[in-house]
Structure formats: structure tokens, C-alpha cells
Here is the input.
Amino acid sequence: MKRIHVLSPRLANQIAAGEVVERPANVVKELVENSLDAGATRIEVDAEQGGVKLIRIRDNGSGIEKDDLPLSLSRHATSKIVDLDDLESVQSLGFRGEALASIASVSRLSLSSHEQESELAYQVTAEGRDMATEVKPCAHPVGTTVEMRDLFFNTPARRKFLRTEKTEFNHLEEVVKRMALSRYDVSFQLRHNNKVIHSLRPCSSAFDQEKRIATLLSAQFMKEAVRIDMEAAGLKLWGWVGLPTFNRSQADMQYFFVNGRIVRDKLVAHAIRQAYQDVLYHGRHSAFVLYLELDPALVDVNVHPTKHEVRFRDGRLVHDFLFRTLHKALGEVRPETPSTDHA
Ligand code: ADP
Ligand code: MG
Here is the structure.
């Protein structure tokens, strides 16, 4: 038997990276979440070769202090929670302090930041977790730029799992779409191989929001969607649901956000499926962009590292509310549909 030894921090990070970073899209998700957590109102995403060669995210958020820069790349280093109470009431998108450490361990990373109170901007770099401890001054407006190059350059086994440039970019673009649908108040730009793919201005009205959705999803969806806006028992549901005439062969246009986070939840999916049950042909899928808002104490978002699952305190209540609201909305536009009140 071999003797037990503690993993080097570098290897530990690379193992952990396997859970967070599977492909360029995951990197974009983590970095854009960081920008949003920093209060950015403008986020620019640049990608090259599907994000494998380069991902650069520039934001106008609060920035990182000079002395915190090296720390931001260490594992379990976060500014977002301090104790268990914070964890239970966490509002930020991140809090595990793992993303930057993980990404840094499998790429060449540089972080440039100008903290809002500081006079100067500084930069740190890391290459496969061989971190440059040196913090150098640089030129940067208030905010942060994270530049990641050569994803998996030091982990060839993982690199092999990457798909074509087009597939990787599709995943990456999907992440940006979700982010853009989660924050209408933020402007987003996405470029791929120096070509502007999306340029989205902040939205100040429902009209602007609908324009953003038409741009990101399809103009046809917006034409065939009904607006939802319902509040009951401390739950609020708003957004747009596609009419049964707008249906898809795949469930690829279904966006559901709980308190601003995209969610893929069985209970939610079931409630929506049921609401569409007697108006959609078998095997077809509905399209929707929906936002559920409720007291954060009534929902646990801390279930899974990638945070796509949630746990509702009262699942039955949420299920019934979703079903009733959507069933009614769909029934109103399809009066010939017999209304079956079997919630
Ligand atoms: P987490 O987001 O879970 O805290 P990360 O590894 O993603 O962990 O980031 C570590 C820390 O670096 C964050 O807590 C935050 O303080 C800082 N940080 C990362 N990205 C940004 C950014 N774009 N703007 C400001 N601070 C950032
Ligand atoms: Mg983070």
C-alpha cells in the first residue's frame, strides 16, 4: 500500500475544476456571475475559437482591491459570505470561492482590476495555478477584466472532451442569453472571433424587454406569446409564455428564473407541462421566459454546485400557483379549450 499524503493545492484545484469547469461556457457563467455580483451595469464578453482559445470578460463593477487580487485566485476565498448565517440568506450568485481558483488551475489567467476607491489599477496572472505572486500596476477603468486563455492547456485529457468550435460557442452563447434574460438592467455585449454577436442595451420598459427577448430568442416567439403578471400568497410570477401555436420539437426555449437565477427544477417543469397538457400536441414543447419571485427564506438555492436546482419550502404551493396561473392564461387565449379546474 502507498502512504497517504495531502494533495498539492494545484492538484486539488484541478480536481475541483472538474466540477465547475467542463467547457468554455462554464467559465463564462462563473465570470459573468462575478461581474453581476460586483454590481456591473455593463458586461462585455469576448470569445475566440468557441472560448477555448480566449474568454475575456470586462465589467464596470466595483473592482477588486490590490491586496485582494492574489487572494481572489485562491480556493475557498470569497468576499461574499463570512459565516453560516450569511450562507442561509445569501443573495449573491457566487459564494463558494472556487471559480477563479478552478479556472486558473486549468488555463492561463490574468485578472486586471481597478477598485472604485483606488487611484490605480492592478493586475495578477496565473498559469495553470503557477501563480505570479507579483501584483503589477496596469491601465484599467473602474471595474474588472478577466482574461482566460488556452483552456485545459495543461490537462490534455479534459481538452479531448471539448467539441467543435461551433458547439462550444453555442453553449457559450446560451449562457450569455440566460444572463441577459436574468438582468434587463444590465447591458451585454458578446463577440466571437471579433464579430459582434449580441449587443444589448439596458431595458427601461417592458417594451425594451420584449425587444431583448425577440433578439435573443426569436421575433416569432414574442409575436405568439402572452404576458403573465400574477401575484398571490407571497408569490409573484411574471414573464411571457408562448401560445400553443408556438411550439418546438425540443425543450430549447424554456427559461425559468427563481429570484433572478436560472433554474431547472422538476417541480416547476411538471407544473408548466401540466398547464400546457391539453393545448399542446404530444411530443411538442412549449416556450417560455418566466420569473418567479418569492421570499428568499422560502427557497433554498444552495442545493447544487452549479446551482440549477432549488428546493422550495412549500413545493405544493409553488406548483399549484404556477399551474393555476399558466392554465388560466392559456385558457383565456384559447376559449375553446374546456377549462378543467383540477389543480
Ligand atoms: P465567489 O464568486 O464564489 O466568491 P470566485 O472565485 O468566483 O468566488 O471569486 C472570488 C472573489 O473574487 C469574489 O468573492 C470577489 O470578491 C472577487 N471577484 C471575482 N470577480 C470579480 C469581479 N468581476 N469584480 C469584482 N470582484 C470580483
Ligand atoms: Mg464567483
About this structure: The chain has a mean pLDDT of 90. The two ends are 60 Å apart (CA to CA). The longest helix spans residues 315-333.
